[in-house]
Structures are given as C-alpha cells and as structure tokens.
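Proteins fold reproducibly. Next comes a concrete instance:

***
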Amino acid sequence: MKKIGIFYSSGNNTLGKIAQEIGTQLHIPASDIRLISTLTQDSIHKYDMLIFGSSENCDGKLPKEWDETLTWLKKSDLSGITIALFGCGKSKENGALYCNGMGILYDELKKTGASFTGSVTMDDYPTSDSPAVKNDKYTGLIVDEGNGDKVSEKRVNRWICILNNNPDTQDLLSS
C-alpha cells in the first residue's frame, strides 16, 4: 500500500470519528490520521494520497484551522498526489451551505495538479444545491449529522468501496 494521510479540521467531533473510521477500514496507522494544522509543506510529498475532511461553516467559509494550510497548499504542485474529500454537516439547517467545506477544498485544490477521487451520487442525500456538488455528484463522502446520520460505518464502507473500485486509486489502496 502506498502512503496515505488523513487530515481534518477539529471543530466537529463527528469529523474525527469519520477520520478514524476511514483510517480503520483502510488500515492507515494512527500516526497518519491527524489534524490539518499538523500538515506541513515539508511533509506533503511523503503522501501518495491525501484524504481531507472538513465540516460546514454557516458563514460559507472553511473552519479557521484550514486558513494557514490552505494558503500554501493551493499554491503547491500536487501533481502525482490523489485527493479524496469527506465532510459532515446538517442539510436541513444549512441547506445551500451543506458540506460547503468540501466544495471549497475542491475548488481551491483542483488547480494544484492533484487528481480527485471518491465522488458520490446524490441519491441518498436531501439537498443538491450545496457547493460540494460538482457535475451532479458530491465531491466526496458526506455525513448528514442533522438527520441522524451519525458516523455510519455502512456509509463509510460504501465510500471505501468507491475508492477501491476506482482504477485511478486501486494501486494506492491495495496491500
């Protein structure tokens, strides 16, 4: 298996649980499941795949923790690195801003040369006007914590299957 890192913002307990569940299912060491603030310019290229997690913010911005990292990250050459996104939010309460953090990350990082994987259909989700929707799919795994969809092993498992069945990421995830 190639080197995979999971980095997420801490403003939400659910996000940490999702990160841990993804890490467990992909057999990622705990040392590579960390807060986004710990990712550095020196460490970014030790990873073949980065899995980024963000919650939504009602003001339409990323959680503050992302500010410094995203400033240098979006200017980096991430060619050869694959990015997958996950997020959580409350679709009923936040509607058009539902999981907006994923949409912001996708928009900011698509210019870096990285490839993206892990988009999911909107079939199981209650909203489609979120910034996290691109080309009629969510840009990654989402958990709707406002509708009783707490960290769902089943939902994470389905997402891991999407990653495993993507020809672009199979070599990254195989043992």
The mean pLDDT is 81. The beta strands are 4-8, 33-35, 49-55, 82-89, 115-117, 120-121, 133-134, 137-138, 140-144.
